[in-house]
Amino acid sequence: MKSRAELQQQEFSNRDLLRAVYRLPDRLEKVPDEARLFARVMRDVLEALPRAEAVAVVRRPPLCPPGELEVQVLEYATRSRPGARSEFRPSRRLVKRALCEQECSCLCAWPSGTAAGSEMTMPNHGPRSGADVTIPHYGQRTGAAPWAVCTPFQDDSQYALYVEGFEEPLGNGLPDPAYLNDCQKFAELVAKITEAALKTVRLRQQIEVAKLAWPKNMRALLNDPGKLEQLLLKPVEAEITILFCDLRGYSRYAEETGANLHTAFAEVQKALDVMSSAVTEKGGIVAGFRGDAVLAFWGWPEPQPDAVARAAGAATRIFERLTGPTFRRKCGLGLTHGTALVGRLGAHDLAIIDLYGPVVNLAFRLEEMTKAFGTGIVISDDIATHVRNADPSGTTFRTRPLGTVVPRGVKNPLPVHELVPREPILGYPSWLTENGFKSNMNLWKAALELFAKGKWAEAHLALDDHFHSDPAAQYLMNFMAKSNKVPPLTWKGVIEEPKKLD
Predict the structure, then answer these.
(1) CB 81 within 8 A of CB 89
(2) Whole-angstrom Cα distance, residue 183 to residue 49?
(3) Kind and range of the H or E element at 53?
(4) Distance between CA atoms of residues 209 and 295, nearest Å
């Protein structure tokens, strides 16, 4: 029995083993998983120790009752009979002594000609009681002395490297102590290198698993933990462009298909994939899913001067996909831009990348307004200004004002707008994408001005004449019709909490 420190003080008499140790780290550097790591180690051990018959990674199961001698073989390889698992049995006593009692490398040797189950001899320790250690029982060589070494890993895995073989005996019938010393030291070094490689493999796997829970455009930061730590230490205020998308009709669909939850969620999953992929393709970050809705943003951790254009592109892409023939289910989107608190937010035991601030709540409220106005995308005045300034001719996006509103939960009135792509969307006819866009826009703005000034009869007539089939115009006409096209005395041109009218 020798500790790792004791073995490190000993010199190799066999330089070939030392060279084999030097080669091992390079061979294990890119092994992808634990099983292949152990397989690689065992091949190298058998190659380096030509008189070894078998090598294995074993452990004493963590739930094994005290006093029991159960040994679990995780992986093994034999020289004489590859793949014959029933032919390989490590010494339970030796594994227990190395792993549980001494917690250090243990070497056992038997005199040549010793039968299985006979007494065990350890160098400098004399004989032990019968059946204390199981002798390798397969492929025994006539006149050869069997030996075995079990070297525990010095981590919390409860693993050990187990090697056994046969050696030509000396005059006392036992193997050469110098050779056994080299085998034990070699096993210790291999175990130490394997420990480090195993930690690397598990860390790599942990990172891959962690990536699944991280926004796609944040995953690269897992390879730069210093920068990631700085980002997550404290949330910061930043200029953020926010997209919120909610699906239409999925709650009822989930209720109707509730008997088969996997089938129901598979449909929702497809839609969520459309939303998240559109965001990540435009360089945004998915902050999270709210049931069948997605919250995403641009402008952090690095500023994005074209954040609004990116968000607008993602929004129109989502609406096009979820409104078209592939899904045949509509969605609503709200886009805002402003200052928000962004970073690691949440309770102490569950903190995720998220946003906080009035501009975030506004995105939710704008999405709600898509139901009232019958539009796909409702945007704030800041977003509309950014879009018009970046694309004044409307070659990529087009916007139109929908009026001044006070969203639910908001005190101050604010203008809101509709956003559409320049190219028509199948299943969503809109005069905003037609050739007469500019002339119609002038008519629309004139009618909207009449509405704001309280000239509802004239506004109603203008909307009915030119935009009869437009959902937003229908909402305004129904809104005015509720009071016979006469505004209330308190009318200030502002719609309070727009909602879908019956």
Answers:
(1) no
(2) 8
(3) strand 52-59
(4) 22
Listed in sequence order, the residues at least 6 apart from 425 whose beta carbon sits closer than 8 Å to its beta carbon are 316, 319, 320, 323, 324, 376, 433
- Number of Cβ within 10 Å of residue 248's Cβ equals 17
Contacts of 82 (CB under 8 A, 6+ apart): none
For 37, how many CA atoms within 13 A lie in the half-sphere containing its CB? 23
Residue 89: per-residue pLDDT = 80
The domain ranges of the chain are: 4-210, 216-429, 435-496
| Predicted local distance difference test score (pLDDT) of residue 255 | 65
Contact 329, 321 (CB under 8 A): no
Match 């981590």 to its residue by tokens.
Answer: 155
Select 216-429's CATH number: 3.30.930.10, 2.160.10.10, 3.30.450.50, 3.30.70.1230. Answer: 3.30.70.1230
Q: What is the pLDDT of residue 9?
A: 65
Rounded to whole angstroms, how far apart are CA atoms 99 and 480?
Answer: 83
Closest C-alpha to 311, from 239, 243, 377, 365:
243
Q: What number of CA atoms fall less than 13 Å from residue 82's CA on the CB side?
A: 5
Strands annotated E in 299-456: 331-347, 350-356, 377-380, 397-406, 414-421
Secondary structure (DSSP) of 247-284: ESSHHHHHHHTTT-HHHHHHHHHHHHHHHHHHHHHTT-
User: Can 4-210 and 216-429 be said to share one CATH topology?
Assistant: no
CA 378 from centre of chain: 31
**CB-count exposure of residue 22 (10 Å: 0-12, 13-18, 19+):** exposed
Residue 407 CA to residue 126 CA, distance in Å, equals: 88
Q: Is the dihedral of CA 10, 16, 22, 27 positive or negative?
A: negative
Beta carbons of 383 and 308 less than 8 angstroms apart: yes
Q: How many CB atoms lie within 10 A of CB 337?
A: 26
- pLDDT value at position 331? 87
- Torsion-angle region of 202 (φ positive above 0: left; ψ -120 to 50: alpha; else: beta): alpha
The reported pLDDT for the residue numbered 122 is: 42
Average pLDDT across each block of 10 residues of the chain; the chain has 502 residues. List them in order.
64 79 87 91 92 88 66 85 59 84 84 52 38 48 80 88 87 79 90 91 84 76 81 89 86 64 75 90 89 90 94 94 66 95 79 88 95 94 95 92 93 95 88 90 96 96 95 95 94 90 68
Q: Which of 460, 275, 500, 249 is nearest to 374 (CA)?
A: 500
What's the confidence (pLDDT) of residue 68?
64
Return the CATH fold of 4-210. Beta-Lactamase (3.30.450)
Instruction: State the Cα–Cα distance between residues 432 and 396, nearest whole angstrom.
Output: 12
